[in-house]
UniProtKB/TrEMBL annotation:
The lineage of its organism: Eukaryota, Metazoa, Chordata, Craniata, Vertebrata. This is TBCC domain-containing protein 1. Its main location: cytoplasm. SMART domains: CARP. Pfam families: TBCC. Keywords: Cytoplasm, Cytoskeleton. GO terms for cellular component: spindle pole centrosome. PROSITE patterns: C_CAP_COFACTOR_C. It comes from Eubucco bourcierii (red-headed barbet). Belongs to the TBCC family. It is found in: Cytoplasm, Cytoskeleton, Microtubule organizing center, Centrosome; Cytoplasm, Cytoskeleton, Spindle pole. GO terms for biological process: maintenance of centrosome location; maintenance of Golgi location. Residues 103-126 are annotated as: Disordered. InterPro entries: C-CAP_CF_C-like, CAP/MinC_C, CAP_C_sf, CARP_motif, TBCC1, Tubulin-bd_cofactor_C_dom. The keyword Cytoplasm applies.
Length: 581
């Protein structure tokens, strides 16, 4: 047996890969050209770190990408970082101070910009996901890791074979389990079997992207004598990690590659401080296996959570699972499916920093009031989701008539119909293909620990771009797929649970038009109350009037579906007593 066990990390694919086919010019041919270009122009801010102005030049001038899309890829790579929250907040303050797009662009490009990753220090090339100021002082990313990041965008490339027959040919990689017992290969971003298959089939392409120019042929391909530098293997740690034998201690790839028993099989030369490419490729293939902390393992051997109730009169049973204890921080996940006609409310250590997948939930109210890493909501109907602050991304796919209330770094949505999003987000919401009747509105609720949770994940109240969505792969430039909620339709949302904490109002307040609409409505209520008080009703008339009002209120509860929520509320479901999850 191999002395080490390697696997593909989930987070770069789950958080880092856009769930759409990539532009044609992000294919292997153009990435190889980009790799050579950055090495040749190292002195211009291209290598070993790629500055934002140089990437903008490559993306817009060479790859024919729009500037917004170029920044999107650059910033998504950035969001993979588990950065120090205070530094994230500093950068948010810098962005919020910009009063125009041109000023923001200058801030991203100028020398000496106070970017949160710099801290005035450099970092070793082995540091994963590094994103900070280059020696030139400009916003920059690790060039080799960024090339790998662009490469894995190919995972969602449309397969001609799949489009013709509707499914991949039967193979082990499409047999990943799901909570519903069906294949979950339709969501590649979550499917660790797909991640492994992708890396195995693109491994040589990835290694060639990392080679120095003198190790390549004129057509930018490797030879049998090509050597892979130690720095290149450090970059590959962005995607691959592992353990020694059966140990549970997780190490990045570059540390395991230098372990003495591995140096002969992976072709490491102490003299050159580099690896033989054919031997390294063979060693990686022999050691790569399924991620022990991925979705498959979570569903097969994870801890089942009794967070939801079995609803009388239905055969559906909610299924909720989380990783076993002891998983690396970035691999923590909670998966829930088939929550039906009930309220599920949780504030739990199990959720803190977790990747959450919510699947096939119908006619329910779901409150996850903890700081989260990422959230995916799929195939849900007629439900409301109230989420704690999400450090990375929220992706909503194939949902009908749901409401999502969240503060998050990024929101993306695809194939949704009639969904409403109450947002506070520093980035443009991404509208991917297939959406209809999307409604955006300002974030409009609070719970006592909300601002503490925001500080934990480094999210501020400004900038807030909830009303400025970006159409990605726009269908004929049709902006009619979304609208902003009219202030006349806007109401605040009350979270009906008692918790300890200091937050007593919506962070950042409401936009003026929405606050005005609320104030006018409150004035009408006060006028109505005054009218009733001045009507001088008799005791019997007041009783009769109260019954009439209560009946009308009950009718409204039934018509709006709020009766269902009130009937299923379990206040004790949120609180410190449940912290262990």
């Amino acid at each position: 047996a191999a002395p080490v066990r390697l696997w593909v990390k989930t987070e770069p694919f789950l958080v880092g890969v856009l769930p759409i086919p990539p532009p044609a010019r992000l294919g292997p041919h153009y990435l190889r050209k980009m790799a050579v270009y950055t090495r040749v122009r190292a002195a211009e801010g291209c290598f070993p770190r790629l500055s934002w102005p140089r990437w903008r030049h490559i993306a817009c001038g060479k790859l024919q990408l729009g500037r917004d899309l170029a920044w999107l890829y650059f910033e998504i790579f950035h969001s993979l970082l588990r950065r120090d929250p205070p530094r994230r907040l500093e950068w948010a303050e810098t962005e919020a101070a910009c009063v125009s797009a041109d000023e923001l662009e200058r801030e991203r490009s100028k020398v000496g910009a106070p970017h949160p990753e710099s801290g005035g220090r450099g970092e070793s090339p082995a540091h994963p996901n590094a994103f900070f100021l280059s020696p030139l002082g400009k916003l920059s990313v690790d060039t080799l890791q960024f090339l790998l990041f662009l490469c894995i965008q190919q995972m969602n490339k449309v397969s001609l074979r799949r489009s013709l027959i509707g499914e991949e040919w039967p193979s082990p990689r499409t047999k990943s389990p799901s909570l519903s017992g069906k294949s979950s290969s339709d969501n590649k971003n979550w499917n660790d079997q797909e991640h492994l298959a992708f890396v195995q089939s693109h491994l040589l392409d990835m290694l060639e992207l990392l080679l120095e120019p003198e190790q390549l042929t004129a057509s930018s391909h490797s030879t049998h004598s090509s050597m892979v530098s130690y720095e290149a293997v450090c970059a590959l740690s962005f995607l691959i990690e592992g353990t020694v034998s059966k140990s549970r201690t997780v190490h990045p790839l570059h540390e395991l590659a230098l372990w003495q028993p591995c140096q002969e099989p992976n072709g490491y030369s102490k003299l050159c401080r580099a690896f033989s490419l054919p031997k390294l490729e063979s060693w990686l293939r022999s050691c790569l296996t399924t991620n022990p902390f991925g979705m498959s393992a979570c569903l097969r051997a994870g801890k089942k959570l009794a967070w939801a109730q079995q609803v009388e009169g239905t055969t559906r049973r909610a299924k909720i699972a989380c990783n076993t204890r002891g998983v690396p921080e970035e691999s923590s996940m909670v998966i829930m499916s088939q929550v039906y006609k009930q309220t599920l409310a949780k504030s739990s250590d199990t959720l803190v920093g977790a990747h959450v997948r919510i699947h096939r939930c119908n006619e329910s109210f779901v409150y996850l009031l903890s700081p989260l890493r990422s959230v995916t909501i799929e195939k849900c109907r007629n439900s409301t989701f109230v989420l704690g602050p999400v450090q990375a991304s929220v992706h909503v796919h194939s949902c009908d008539t749901i409401r999502v209330i969240v503060i998050c770094h990024r929101l993306s949505l695809s194939a949704t119909t009639g969904c409403t999003f109450h947002l506070l987000t520093p980035t443009q919401p991404l509208i991917l293909p297939g959406n209809q009747a999307v409604s955006f509105a300002p974030f409009h609720t609070h719970y006592p620990t909300l601002e503490d949770h925001m500080a934990q994940v480094g999210l501020a109240t400004l900038p807030n771009r909830w009303d400025d969505p970006m159409l990605v792969c726009r269908e004929s430039g049709d902006r009619s797929v979304f609208s902003l909620m009219p202030p006349s339709d806007f109401y605040t949302f009350v979270i009906p649970f008692e918790m300890e904490g200091d937050t007593t109002e919506t962070p950042g307040g409401l936009p003026q038009a929405y606050q005005k609409a609320l104030s006018q409505r409150e004035q009408k209520v006060q006028i109505w109350q005054k009218t009733v008080k001045e009507a001088a009703l008799t005791k019997d008339q007041r009783k009769q009037f109260q019954v009439l009002v209560e009946n009308k209120f009950y009718e409204w509860l039934v018509q709006t579906g709020n009766r269902l929520q009130l009937d299923s509320l379990v206040p004790s479901a949120v609180g410190s007593k449940q912290a262990a999850g």
